[in-house]
Each structure stands twice: as structure tokens, then as C-alpha cells.
């Protein structure tokens, strides 16, 4: 039941911000993003997920609030929000072990959160749709 609440929160947060992410870390006091102004409607939700360390941005000074979310980014957010442990997977030929998202994809697969697009591919860079979420 707890995981369903975490998953629901992650989906709501991802849909609300529709933000791209590649790097994740915790405990930031000020957001460095030039594209997230304090008066914007999405400022507070982005600040909350940034402060909690779920998402950091697509670059050091850019969050891309109008950008999409890839499958790799989505499973990374879910893993971080659930406190999951990264795991290596050899199932997907398009998830090299040296990519930033490999352990997150492995966690998602081993947790039963996701399947691949085919038995051997995950499509980590494919944009995530609301339907897929």
C-alpha cells in the first residue's frame, strides 16, 4: 500500500511539473534554474522536489519545466521517492551499465514497476506519456 502512495505521488509530481531530469541530489537551499522564476505557477512544486532531492535538472542552471520526461527519468524519480536501491540489469540491450540511469532501470525491473518495450529493450530515452505512467 505504501508503494502505491509513493507511485501516485510520483506520477502526480511528474505530470504537474512535466519536467526533464538527469541528475538527482538532496538538500539544496536555492534553486539555480534560470527557467524557473519565483512567480511561476510551477515554482513551489519544483522547489519541493528539488529540495527533497528527487530531481535536480537537465543542466546545472536549467530545469526545463516545459520539457518532457523520458522513461529513464521516470523510473529514476520513482526509485528515489521510494528509497529504492539501484540494481544492475542485463536484460535490456539498450541500457548500458555505465549510464546514469542503469541502476534505476534495474531497480524498476526487479521491483516489477516496469517492463521493457520488448523483452530485450527498455527505450530509456523514449518520452514518457501520461498513459504509460
Number of strands: 0
The percent of residues in helical segments reads: 25-40%
Low-confidence segments: 1-7, 15-28
Main pleated-sheet profile: none
**Overall SS class:** mainly alpha
Rounded to the nearest angstrom, the radius of gyration is 14 Å
| Terminus-to-terminus distance | 18 Å
Give the SSE string: HHHH
Proportion of residues in extended strands: under 5%
**Average pLDDT score:** 82
Helical run tally? 4
Taken from the alpha-carbon principal axes, the silhouette is elongated
Secondary structure layout:
Layout: H1 2-17, H2 43-51, H3 71-82, H4 102-110
Helix pairs in contact: 1-3, 3-4
Describe the overall structure.
The chain is an all-alpha fold. It is built from four helices and no strands.
Can you tag this structure with a few keywords?
single chain, mainly alpha, 0% strand, disordered N terminus
Summary of the model, kept short:
The chain has 4 helices and no strands.
Amino acid at each position: 500500500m505504501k508503494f502505491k502512495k509513493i507511485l501516485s505521488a510520483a506520477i502526480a509530481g511528474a505530470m504537474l511539473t512535466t519536467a526533464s531530469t538527469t541528475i538527482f541530489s538532496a538538500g539544496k537551499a536555492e534553486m539555480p534554474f534560470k527557467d524557473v522564476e519565483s512567480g511561476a505557477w510551477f515554482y513551489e512544486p519544483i522547489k519541493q522536489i528539488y529540495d527533497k532531492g528527487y530531481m535536480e535538472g537537465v543542466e546545472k542552471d536549467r530545469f526545463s519545466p516545459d520539457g518532457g520526461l523520458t522513461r529513464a527519468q521516470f523510473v529514476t524519480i520513482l526509485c528515489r521517492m521510494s528509497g529504492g536501491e539501484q540494481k544492475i540489469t542485463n536484460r535490456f540491450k539498450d541500457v548500458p551499465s555505465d549510464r546514469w540511469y542503469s541502476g534505476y532501470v534495474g531497480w524498476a525491473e526487479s521491483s516489477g514497476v516496469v517492463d521493457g518495450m520488448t523483452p530485450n529493450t527498455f527505450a530509456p530515452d523514449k518520452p514518457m506519456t501520461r498513459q504509460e505512467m
